[in-house]
What does this fold into?
Amino acid sequence: MSLQTKKPYEALTTETVVQVVAPLNHFDDVNQLEIKEIGDGNLNYVFHLVEPATGKSLIVKQALPYAKVVGESWPLTLDRARIESEALIKAGEYVPALVPKVYHTDRQLACTVMEDLSDHLILRKGLIQGEVYPKLAEHIATFLAQTLFHTSDFFLHPFVKKEQVKAFINPELCKITEDLVFTDPFFNHDTNDFPEELKSSVERLWNDQTLKRETAKLKHAFLTRAEALLHGDLHTGSIFVTTDSTKVIDPEFAYYGPIGFDIGQFFANLALSYLSHFHHSKDQHKRQQFQAYLLNVIEDTWTHFTEQFSQLWHSKGQEAYMQVAGVEEDFFAQVLEDAIGFAGCEVIRRTIGLAHVADLDSIEDQALQLKLKEKALALGSTLVRERKQLTRISRFLETIRGVAHA
Ligand SMILES: Nc1ncnc2c1ncn2[C@@H]1O[C@H](COP(=O)(O)OP(=O)(O)O)[C@@H](O)[C@H]1O
Ligand SMILES: CSC[C@H]1O[C@H](OP(=O)(O)O)[C@H](O)[C@@H]1O
It folds into this structure.
């Protein structure tokens, strides 16, 4: 359901957010709601509304006209709320169990009313605690295969696909990724954030012309290859989990881009988790087990993804060339190469760029944190530089293991 209010934009508060949900008749009595702002991301407000008497609850997520993490000096389009809401609805057409339900979108207020997933935990937090999620790989592979296939030229009529590209033009959010993932960490830029002790490693990275040449190709792919509707920010903070359930949230960076990008971001954040468990797992046996689990998630995600995408390729493919011998193999080889390259960029930017990850930053032992960040830089550089040689998922895993244990 999509109701439009005529009111001009205003930042919601715990008092005014009630006005957004009242017309939905979701609650028995909106005057009895307990409301908290719970946003912990970089960009938006997230309000949690619960009615204690009935246990009914909702989430209202609102975009601010600037990036919350920096403040009003970084203006940011409110259109991202529309993109996020439409991307969730689009994903819901193919994988309804893997995204929150969207109940209402308000274009003027740049907010989305959605299902409350507070019974789930943000995957990053679960992984830091060493929790195992047996269905994660299968669920994320399904999310990736279904959303990417059904929004691509393999499935859509070219006119429909181009309409979709138009609807998901997202220049300001893409620019953030172009800068923060692909550019700034590779140059001496003021958005970068790293301790002085890492300076010599960072300078080595800045002076690595091969790395920069390869990163330029990956950035160019991100800028130009409108292959499918991406989530655009599929890190472990954008995934909610329980033992049985997985929900992907926060697709405000959605746009038409290279299929390997979402896969690479997911893999990168698992690789960062792998490194961080040299700290988070106190016991060596548990650490080895958990790190093996993380690599299994990467491997199983890739295996399930290729199986499902291939099944869709053969059952629902619309493009004449899809039946030509070798085309499918070439496609998966390109996606893997891209995913590994994008993973390398994500690992580097989460280590020395503007937006870090709690997996590494929460390590109190500063010497160990530095050592692991050095490893992250080495891993990221290797993945970008050597992605063309890592032609099997097993070689990607060997690289993570090799760099981590060097
Ligand atoms: N549907 C939801 N149900 C419960 N909590 C949510 C929901 N969506 C977001 N949150 C909470 O708000 C936080 C920030 O949400 P997120 O969508 O990642 O915002 P941002 O775009 O600012 O990064 C999440 O980490 C989670 O704790
Ligand atoms: C100034 S935005 C930095 C960073 O934040 C986004 O992540 P999230 O919205 O999940 O916190 C995205 O990864 C951006 O690159």
In short: The chain has a mean pLDDT of 97.
